[in-house]
Write a structure and sequence with these properties.
Elements: H1 3-28, H2 34-62, H3 69-82, H4 88-111, H5 116-139
Helix pairs in contact: 1-2, 1-3, 2-5, 4-5
The structure holds fe (ii) ion (2 copies).
């Protein structure tokens, strides 16, 4: 698998997992945290849209569709299930770390020489990933991080 094909496939899987994970979280917190549940649902829609962009890119670049979307959606739901014992705060902290890593990865790809199609998709999804990465701090603003 070459670099481009690896990146597209891996990104597609992560987006599908994210979709399943955020969908589950949204369902899980619908009653207790309706506002947060709405945000999770919005994130799920965005991750799904990102997944579709990678799917289209794969179709255009390799002439064949990516497979396994159901499996990766399920893996996302499974992850949400396995995270159930954690507090909402620690779940969100973990998600924020993962999303921040995604932002860093995307910025790294964009800073190098990269295929035009992949660049376009990465640029499109970056603002959403930044919002996803920022949700934790928005909900749990940390006093320690305020400038002295
Ligand atoms: Fe995404
Ligand atoms: Fe995300």
């Amino acid at each position: 698998m070459n670099d481009m094909s690896y990146r597209i496939t891996r990104s597609f899987r992560m987006e599908m997992m994210g979709t399943g994970l955020y969908r589950s979280l949204s369902a899980q917190y619908r009653k207790s945290e309706p506002e947060l549940s709405r945000r999770f649902s919005e994130f799920a829609r965005q991750e799904h849209m990102h997944g579709r962009l990678f799917e289209k890119l794969a179709q255009k670049t390799f002439g064949k569709p990516l497979r396994g979307d159901k499996f990766w959606l399920f893996m996302g739901r499974l992850t949400a299930f396995l995270m159930r014992p954690l507090s909402l705060k620690s779940k969100m902290k973990k998600l924020s770390a993962i999303e921040s890593q995604a932002v860093a990865d995307i910025e790294k790809v964009l800073s190098g020489s990269v295929d035009d199609g992949l660049r376009t998709v990465m640029k499109t999804i970056l603002p959403d990933e930044k919002v996803h990465a920022g949700l934790y701090r928005q909900i749990f603003p940390s006093h320690e991080e305020k400038p002295l």
